[in-house]
């Protein structure tokens, strides 16, 4: 069965995120072309909606300028909300009231109260919902989850994540929202939220306790304007150095997580180590955005003859060996979102393959806001 999609926030721009992530995977010749069909779209005004419809080959009468019309379109099965997070609730609710399945980008909402309201309505209406947390279906994370679940590492004792990001000191003008308190689009909500969700999912764990320290390392931020020039520096209003520690359930393992915004003088990187009684895993990559830039996976286990050497002898300890991660069937760069659509198309309905439903994403929204509330240095 072909799933008919209506996208709120789809413009005529071929380089826009909604086009790359939510249209490219199922346009003619793409991997999911036989599973999905774009049948409608909605933007903030009639003129931009008509321009987008023309660009994407949609009939003009299927170009809407309000969420109610696209929600009530009988030719739409799944409504996708791909706009800034401050608009997520008001654009998704009409589709939920219309009993349509709904896909919302991460962050789900700008706060806990909104996320709870959306999840409650989705449950009441009995519809399927999906959140764009594509990191959990990315190949490396799927492999890690498989190995951890198999018991190959034994009991997990601890896990440590370190990431540096040198690309967020100067940002495009269109994402100015990241510097607006309460918008739900901070580094903490977006960058940390994506990685923390993928990590907890791979470990089949939740945080039973949480403590966070957040600071502002760089007190100002600049934005690149449309002509390529930089805006004047303005005070930064959100944390850019985020340290989280906690205890995982059910394993009782300790988690340590540290995100650092750096200057371009420090290379961006991601490293994650999982320690178990039988072995260990390591993920390494050149980008903290692991949902779009997959890290490599390495395995370590004690050498079989380790008892014959002192722990101080060279070569006595385990060594890291790269593990092959099967390539995704999604040919092309779709920001990792195509794998979510693939899971939706297969109809499995599990958060393992198609992104978490609103109710599962809610605890992560809560954790993100707790990190702000538990801030020790600002």
Write the layout of secondary structure elements.
Elements: E1 3-8, H1 17-22, E2 36-42, H2 46-56, E3 63-64, H3 67-71, E4 78-81, H4 88-97, E5 101-105, H5 112-125, E6 129-132, H6 139-150, E7 156-165, E8 170-172, H7 187-202, E9 206-215, E10 220-224, E11 234-235, E12 241-249, E13 254-261, E14 269-276, E15 280-285, E16 296-300, E17 321-323, H8 337-346, H9 351-354, H10 358-373
Parallel strand pairs: 1-2, 1-4, 2-3, 4-5, 5-6, 7-13, 8-10
Antiparallel strand pairs: 7-14, 9-12, 10-11, 12-13, 14-15, 15-16, 16-17
Describe the fold and architecture:
The model is unreliable at 349-353 (pLDDT under 50). Strands 9-12-13-7-14-15-16-17 form an 8-stranded mixed sheet, with helices on one face. It has a 6-stranded parallel sheet with strand order 3-2-1-4-5-6, with helices on both faces. Strands 8-10-11 form a 3-stranded mixed sheet, with no helix packed on it. The chain has 378 residues and is α/β, with parallel strands linked by helices. It has helices spanning 17-22, 46-56, 67-71, 88-97, 112-125, 139-150, 187-202, 337-346, 351-354, 358-373; strands at 3-8, 36-42, 63-64, 78-81, 101-105, 129-132, 156-165, 170-172, 206-215, 220-224, 234-235, 241-249, 254-261, 269-276, 280-285, 296-300, 321-323. Strand 12 and strand 13 (254-261) form a beta hairpin. The protein starts with a strand and ends in a 5-residue tail after the last helix. It has 10 helices and 17 strands.
Instruction: For the record, give the distance between the C-alpha atoms at the N and C termini, rounded to a whole number.
Output: 52 Å
Provide the gyration radius in Å: 22 Å
The class by helix and strand makeup works out as alpha/beta
What portion of the residues fall into strands of 2 or more residues? 25-35%
Q: What global shape is seen?
A: globular
The low-confidence parts are 349-353
Number of strands: 17
The main sheet comes to: 8 strands, mixed
Q: How confident overall, as mean pLDDT?
A: 89
Tell me the strand order in the biggest sheet: 9-12-13-7-14-15-16-17
Q: What is the string of helix and strand elements?
A: EHEHEHEHEHEHEEHEEEEEEEEEHHH
């Amino acid at each position: 069965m072909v799933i008919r999609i209506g996208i709120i926030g789809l413009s005529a721009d071929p380089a826009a995120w909604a086009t790359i992530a939510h249209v490219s995977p199922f346009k003619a010749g793409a991997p999911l072309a036989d599973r999905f069909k774009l049948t409608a779209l909605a933007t903030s005004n009639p003129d931009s909606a008509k321009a987008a419809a023309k660009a994407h080959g949609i009939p003009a009468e299927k170009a809407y300028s309000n969420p109610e019309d696209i929600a009530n379109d009988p030719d739409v099965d799944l409504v996708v909300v791909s706009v800034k997070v401050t608009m997520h609730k008001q654009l998704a609710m009409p589709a939920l009231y219309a009993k349509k399945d709904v896909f919302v980008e991460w962050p789900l909402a700008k706060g806990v109260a909104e996320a709870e309201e959306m999840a409650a309505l989705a449950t009441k209406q009995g519809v399927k919902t999906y959140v764009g947390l594509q990191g959990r279906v990315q190949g490396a994370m799927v492999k890690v989850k498989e190995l951890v679940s198999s018991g190959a590492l034994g009991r997990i004792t601890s896990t440590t994540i370190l990431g540096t990001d040198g690309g967020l000191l100067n940002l495009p003008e269109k994402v100015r929202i990241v510097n607006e308190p309460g918008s739900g689009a901070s580094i903490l909500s977006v960058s940390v939220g994506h990685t923390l969700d993928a990590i907890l999912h791979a470990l089949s764990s939740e945080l039973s306790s949480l403590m966070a320290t957040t600071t502002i390392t760089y007190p100002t931020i600049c934005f690149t304007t449309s002509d390529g020039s930089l805006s004047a520096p303005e005070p930064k209003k959100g944390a850019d150095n985020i340290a989280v520690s906690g205890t995982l359930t059910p394993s009782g393992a300790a988690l340590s997580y540290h995100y650092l915004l750096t200057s371009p003088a420090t290379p961006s990187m991601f490293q994650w180590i999982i320690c178990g009684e039988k072995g260990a895993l390591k993920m390494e990559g050149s980008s903290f955005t692991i949902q779009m830039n997959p890290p490599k996976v390495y395995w370590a286990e004690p050498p079989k003859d380790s008892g014959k050497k002192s722990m101080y002898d060279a070569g006595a300890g385990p060594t890291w060996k790269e593990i092959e991660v099967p390539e995704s069937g999604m040919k092309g760069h779709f920001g990792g979102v195509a794998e979510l659509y693939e899971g939706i198309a297969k109809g499995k309905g599990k958060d393992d393959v198609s992104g978490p439903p609103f109710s599962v994403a809610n605890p992560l929204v809560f954790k993100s806001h707790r990190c702000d509330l538990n801030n020790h240095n600002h």
